[in-house]
Every structure is written in C-alpha cells, then in structure tokens.
C-alpha cells in the first residue's frame, strides 16, 4: 500500500495523541493541541475535524468506538456533536452499526454516514451482524440508497450473506458444523429463512410478539 503523509496543521510542540487505532485507511485518532480536541480520519474531507469542545484534559473523555466518543456531557460522531443525544444513556449495540439512548436509534457506517430514528422508546431488538432491527412489531434498516433509517416490511427478502452471519453468531455460537449431518441441518435452516421476519422469528423468538 502506498504511504501518504498529510499535514494536519497542528502545533507539534503542544499537540499530543490522546487515543488512536486502526490501520491504513481505517486509522483514526484524537489529538489534543492544548486548546481543542481534534478527530483525525482518512475518511474526513480534510482528514481532521476540530471538536466544538474544550481539550480532553478539561473533562471526562471516553472513546466508545472508532466513530463515537463522549465528552463534556455530549456525544460526538467522528468529531461532530450529535445533537440531542442523551450522553448518559447513549450506548452502542454490540456487533452492529447501531447505538441507542432510550429515545432514539442511531445508525452509522463510513459509506452511509449517520442517521437517527426519533421516538424509539418501545421494545427494541437487535441481532449481531444484522443490518436490520425491530422496534415493536416493525422492522427498520439504514438504506444504502437514501442513507436514512427507514421502515421495511417483515416480508422483505433477507440477503444470504446477512442471514448466514447473523445465525452463525446468534444461533450457532460462531462454531463450525461438527459433521456432514449438522452441516446439512444448518443448510436447511438457512434455506427456510427467506425474509426479515423469518430471521428475527428464528434468532429472537419473541422479537415480533
């Protein structure tokens, strides 16, 4: 991979890296220049974004993921403040693109960006490695076309890659089949899961009531 060097235009004498992670284009970092905290990422248009907050030493700073952080009673996504997010209740949903705070569901990927579903106060159910989630009896996903969290029918066809990864994590515990008989049984289960509702019904029997 070709190496590139970017000038972040920060004072070297007073700047320090607070946290960093990832490699190559997935590299990210938080840099404190003594006055402000900055988020650094290859995927940002200018590779760096100043956070509208005092520097990290002035309060509790917590990195929640490569994209989310909590600082000074606010939640930030790639260095930008997530307006109205409840910082105290904000939590990531493990092994998904989603987060929640008791009032909203947040979805984020590099390609789709950040979107928020308001009024998500009822029962929420998520599946590991799943692009969909259930809110009560309704299903949602973050559209790759509109970039927004949108409702989808339970009869929506489920992608083979998605259902295989979800069932592997949720039902089969990330284990390989023990023999040909178990492999055939798993294949039959996969074949029987055709829709979003099928997937949730199998992986979370109480997801749709």
How many beta-strand runs?
A: 16
Q: What sequence of helices (H) and strands (E) makes up the elements?
A: EEEEEEEEEEEEEEEEHHH
Query: Would you identify the regions where 5 or more consecutive residues have pLDDT less than 50?
Result: none
Largest sheet: 4 strands, antiparallel
Nearest-integer average pLDDT: 91
Distance between the termini: 50 Å
Choose one word for the global shape. elongated
Helix content: 10-25%
Decide which structural class fits the backbone: alpha+beta
Strand content: 25-35%
Strand line-up of the largest beta sheet:
1-2-3-4
Per DSSP, the total helix count is 3
Please outline what is shown here.
The protein is α+β, with helices and mostly antiparallel strands and 209 residues long.
Report on this model:
The chain starts with 15 loop residues before the first strand and ends in a 6-residue tail after the last helix. The strands form 4 sheets. A 4-stranded antiparallel β-sheet has the order 1-2-3-4, with no helix packed on it. Strands 5-6-7-8 form a 4-stranded antiparallel β-sheet, with no helix packed on it. It is α+β, with helices and mostly antiparallel strands and 209 residues long. It has 3 helices and 16 strands. The radius of gyration is 20 Å and the shape is elongated. The model has no long low-confidence stretch (mean pLDDT 91).
